[in-house]
Amino acid sequence: MTDKITQVTKGIFQVQVPVPFPLKTVQCYLVREESAWTMIDTGLQYAPAREAWAHAFQTLKIEPRAIRQIVLTHGHPDHYGLAGYFQDKTGAPVLMLDREIEIAALEWQADGEHMDMIARYFAQHGLPANIGKSVYERQMQVLAMVQPQPTLSPLGEGEEIQIGADAYRIVWTPGHADGHMILHRADGLAFTGDHVLMKITPNIALWPGLAPNPLKDYLESFAKVEHLQITRALPGHRAILYDLPARIAELRAHHAARLNECVAAARNCTAYQICLEIFPGLKTADELRMALVETLSHLEYLVTEGRLTRHEQRVAPDQKLILYSAHA
After folding, report:
1. What pLDDT, in 10s, does the model give residues 283-314?
2. Whole-structure pTM value
3. Secondary structure of the chain in the HEC alphabet?
4. 2-108+146-242 — its CATH code?
5. Which of 63, 113, 226, 246 is 20–30 Å from 143 (CA)?
């Protein structure tokens, strides 16, 4: 497993942590300090993930109590799930952007109330009941993989945080998550979470109860990131980015094309029907739920832009479908 731990620069180690999702791993980081360490992102509460961390701690000769702080780029399960586990083992504070702390309290309610809301939301957008049952069961499995919950301490946009020998500025970059943040160092190095990734596009999802237009937020955040002049972006998945402006240009073009595809597919039909046309060949519950919420983020962006209309169709006394149509 030594290839799963890579020193990316002086004092910074990347740890490949397994996840039971299509991406297979999430990249977390350990930053050496004079007599302690900072952990950045954690992986899921999942036996192979705990084993990967045990190997990393053994290889780098880290005692749990040497972890001074745990910093989370955002509250998605593959970055957040082991935070409570490691807080219990290390006694370290868990830090996340203040906006994302509010969202985690909604998303990861142990009673599953938010998962029930998502199930109703998917049904309104046309997901068949039999598939919805599989997606709901998977959502509940994921909820179990973010337990125990950590006690979270807030960070604010523009604050500086000491990590290792350096100060990092907190930069709010919404889109992939409402409260996603990156950690930016003055020399151009940054921990960028899932904001910009090589080869794959970060999932931009519209979830019930969260930001109403996450794709707009995401596209607008690019200008803020370009202004930072990041020269090395350490991401949550895939390769380190050395030319962030070029990758951002590719992502802008990708979303412009995807928006056009959604307009072409919107023929008085549900988001689920459009999703199947835009993303053919979906196989697993994970693939389906992420494709559906990605489709919804594009559809709602187009509604606010005036390129699509949204209306409701009553299909039962207590059930409605939401349909999307392109303007003639």
Report:
1. 888 899 999 999 999 999 999 999 999 999 98
2. 0.96
3. CHHHEEEEECCEEEEEEECCCCCCEEEEEEEECCCCEEEECCCCCCHHHHHHHHHHHHHCCCCHHHEEEEECCCCCHHHHCCHHHHHHHHCCCEEEEHHHHHHHHHHCCCCCHHHHHHHHHHHHCCCCHHHHHHHHHHHHHHHHCCCCCCCEEEECCCCEEEECCEEEEEEECCCCCCCCEEEEECCCEEEEECCCCCCCCCCCCCCCCCCCCHHHHHHHHHHHHHHCCCCEEEECCCCCECCHHHHHHHHHHHHHHHHHHHHHHCEEEEHHHHHHHHCCCCCCHHHHHHHHHHHHHHHHHHHHCCCEEEEEEEEECCEEEEEEEECC
4. 3.60.15.10
5. 63
